[in-house]
Amino acid sequence: MTRRRFTQLTMAALGFFTSLSADHVQAISGSKLSLGLTGLRRPTNLGTTFSQLQCHYMGLDYRETFRAICSLGFNRIRLCSYWHEIEPVENEFDFTALDWLLDESHRHGIEVVLTVGMKAPRWPEFHFPDWLHARHDTSTNQAAVDLNPAIGDRALNFTQAVVNHVRNAPNLNYWQIENEPFTRLEITAGRYLSYEFVQRETALVRSLAAPNQKLVMTTAISLPAADLAEDDRAFQESINLADAVGINVYTKVPAGGSLSYLQPQPPFWQKLKEWQTNLAYYKKEDWIAEAQAEPWELNQLVAMAKAEYPSSTPIRTSKLVNSLTDLGYGTVMLWGCEYWYWQKKNNRNLWWWTMQQIIEA
């Protein structure tokens, strides 16, 4: 190595470490930096979920953020069609944001998965427009939301409008029908959708979609012991309806209202492998729809007050991607890209750098 080349490399390394805040430098030194450079494994399809709504929560410009995310090099991205954003007035549709996101992802050569329906990623999951709230009771948690036929009919009308408008987007290859429609979660106040309604919605999208476009359904495995019968029911119902099934995997989340965390026990990983085997048997695509790559902290919509949180770190994310790849999942969608960019904007670059290493593995 020439002295000039040595000096160039030294200055590049110095610039990188200087760009990280002091509390992060130690975290990527030694064996951890070695893991980032040589120990990573990634699946064939690596992607993320982008939410313009999450950008709003975090005070980020969604276009600036999305351009940066696209520059990372993911080959697949999930976008969200939010009902309250697209149909703010009944039967008056505004596709400005969605059209821009589709165009920008196509410009970067990224394949798109688009969620449709009344339930989409990010809080509060059910994204009802104000005019629907004013006319109907959307707060019920004792029965499926769609048992009110007026809500179900309006939701199908919205889904049809979205599919008709964007189905010819050149990089749109997957439709995700709702988001975890069969699970009853605290984040949704226990609200859920019936199998019969989702079946109707699936049939509608299939009838309108382009021939090359496939359908995705998402579900989850409960922490810590993966022992809820409703998980298996939701998984089987998803297999019945979709071409691909995506599983949401979170490995450290608050335990109720306490300061402790739930983490996967061995049965969790066993079930994840069993489900992968079942998907192969039914000739369905196996996805991890959400792999935790941002903090999930008690009573915080977005955990932004501190530089680091125990629920999710770059090293935890690196190890999770390795584990999911080793299990054989062909698609892994990392959850939290808005958070990585927010960290970068605040001069803490470790998350962003780690994502680059995972993508390039």
Structural account:
The protein is an alpha/beta fold and 361 residues long. 45% of the residues lie in helices and 14% in strands. Strands 1-2-3-4-5-6-9-10 form an eight-stranded parallel beta barrel, surrounded by six helices. It has a two-stranded antiparallel ribbon with strand order 7-8. Helix 11 (229-241) links the parallel strand 5 and strand 6. Residues 1-37 have low confidence and may be disordered.
Short description:
The chain is of the alpha/beta class and 361 residues long. It contains 15 helices and ten strands. The strands form two sheets. It has an eight-stranded parallel barrel, surrounded by six helices. It has a two-stranded antiparallel ribbon with strand order 7-8.
